[in-house]
Amino acid sequence: MLFRSNQKSNQDTQHKVKNSVIALADDEPEDLTDRQMLILKMISEGRTNATIADVLGYSESLIRQETIKIYAKLHCSGRSEAALIYHSMSDIRETHAV
Predict the structure, then answer these.
(1) 64-89, pLDDT tens digit by residue?
(2) Sorting pLDDT into bands at 50, 70 and 90, what band is 97?
(3) Which of 17, 33, 45, 77 has its CA 20 to 30 A from that of 8?
(4) DSSP at 28
(5) Positive or negative torsion for Cα 53, 40, 73, 8
(6) How far apart are CA 89 and CA 25, in angstroms?
(7) Rounded CA gap, 18 and 51, in Å?
């Protein structure tokens, strides 16, 4: 039963990510500031808030605040979903770049 529960959870996450990407396709990263896009990129690379803060020269609390704003704008609940959305957005940008 646990396996089915995890499968359902994965399907729900994939569905949420797909819906977020579709919603962002029209107004994609315009809603995110340049700093938020950079933080999102670093999140998608697996970096922690502390590492991001050190690299960018900001406080960890500022990075934490920005990640909360990013999650809200992307309609996601955490780092994994945000990273999936970022990579999907990258795919969309590459597809539409001419």
Answers:
(1) 999 999 999 999 999 999 999 999 88
(2) very low
(3) 45
(4) T
(5) negative
(6) 8
(7) 28
What does the block give as tokens for 91?
């795919």
Residue-wise pLDDT tens digits, 12-39: 666 665 555 555 544 454 589 999 999 9
Q: What is the pTM of this model?
A: 0.67
* Range 5-11 contact pairs with CB under 8 angstroms and sequence separation of 24 or more: none
Cβ atoms of 76 and 40 closer than 8 Å: no
Q: Two tokens at 49?
A: 């808030």
How would DSSP label each residue in 65-76? HHHHHHHHHHT-
| Encoded amino acid at 11, one letter | Q
Residue type, 3: F
| Tokens 């969309």 sit on residue | 92
